[in-house]
């Protein structure tokens, strides 16, 4: 008699390869046929029929790859695929668009498109359009060291650095002015001015009211930058030799220690 099929044996049969199952089936059918009568026509017919069916079934199973042998389909994450654009490409695109269109007329989608990226990638790297703007339009490198140099000629030196041949400070300042309605931008410009102009200059000035005089120098610089930046077509008169002479004299008068005030009785 054939052995009864136990749970453990059934599990072995399911885990076996199709060809191995074919051999097991032959053994089972042979045992069953022998139990009927190995010499009878019925036993031979049962065995022959079983062998044909098992052979056909096993052959088909051997030709068909099982689920365990088929390569898994690649998983596709939700949303659009990640862009290969780097943060540097995003910075270059943002710097170009902010200079050409200004802050308000430049969108995150515009920046991503020019960088060959995706808006979600831009936000993931920089957090917001405001933060990206402040990173690429920062005036810290231009303001840093602006008030260094001999005090006797510092007024002229400051203007020569501000009104450079490439106009880099003017362009950056113009872009910042276009975004002053944003609290982050306004706060950044105030902090940059205090850190790189007012504080270091006040520490160097002699005489009374050093911090007040440093603040007035910063106001002179900001006034010139704003006048040039807001002009539709910047006039050469504002940055010409004569205008710079007046500006230099005004700034220098604030840098030099003021003469002692005379009392009204004198």
Please give a quick description of this structure.
Keywords: DNA-binding, Transcription, Transcription regulation. By secondary structure, the protein is mainly alpha-helical.
Explain the overall architecture.
The chain has helices at residues 7-15, 18-37, 41-63, 87-101, 108-115, 119-126, 129-136, 140-143, 154-162, 168-177, 183-204, 210-230, 241-255. It is mostly helical and 266 residues long. The chain folds into three domains: 15-63; 87-136, Orthogonal Bundle (Arc Repressor Mutant, subunit A); 140-255, Orthogonal Bundle (Tetracycline Repressor, domain 2). Helix 4 (87-101) packs across helix 7 and helix 12 runs antiparallel to helix 13. It is elongated and about 65 Å long. This is HTH tetR-type domain-containing protein. Keywords: DNA-binding, Transcription, Transcription regulation. GO terms for molecular function: DNA-binding transcription factor activity; transcription cis-regulatory region binding. Residues 84-144 form the HTH tetR-type domain.
List the helices and strands and how they pair.
Layout: H1 7-15, H2 18-37, H3 41-63, H4 87-101, H5 108-115, H6 119-126, H7 129-136, H8 140-143, H9 154-162, H10 168-177, H11 183-204, H12 210-230, H13 241-255
């Amino acid at each position: 008699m054939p052995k009864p099929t136990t749970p453990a044996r059934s599990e072995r049969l399911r885990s076996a390869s199709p060809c191995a199952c074919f051999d097991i089936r032959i053994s089972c059918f042979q045992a069953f046929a022998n139990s009927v009568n190995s010499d009878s026509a019925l036993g031979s017919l049962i065995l022959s029929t079983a062998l044909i069916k098992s052979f056909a079934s096993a052959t088909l199973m051997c030709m068909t790859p099982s689920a365990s042998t088929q390569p898994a389909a690649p998983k596709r994450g939700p949303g659009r695929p990640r862009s290969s654009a780097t943060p540097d490409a995003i910075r270059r695109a943002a710097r170009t668009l902010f200079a050409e269109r200004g802050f308000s007329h430049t969108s995150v989608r515009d920046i991503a498109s020019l960088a060959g990226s995706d808006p979600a990638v831009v936000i993931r790297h920089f957090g917001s359009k405001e933060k990206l703007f402040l990173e690429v339009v920062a005036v810290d490198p231009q303001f840093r060291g602006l008030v260094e140099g001999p005090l006797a000629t510092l007024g002229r030196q400051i203007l020569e650095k501000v009104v450079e041949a490439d106009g880099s400070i003017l362009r950056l300042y113009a872009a910042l002015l276009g975004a002053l309605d944003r609290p982050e931008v306004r706060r950044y410009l105030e902090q940059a001015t205090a850190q790189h102009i007012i504080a270091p200059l006040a520490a160097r000035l002699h005489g009374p009211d050093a911090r007040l005089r440093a603040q007035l120098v910063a106001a002179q610089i900001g006034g010139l930058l704003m006048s040039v930046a807001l002009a539709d077509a910047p006039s050469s008169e504002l940055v010409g030799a004569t205008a710079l002479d007046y500006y230099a004299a005004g700034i220098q008068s604030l840098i030099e220690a003021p003469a002692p005030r005379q009392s009204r009785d004198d």
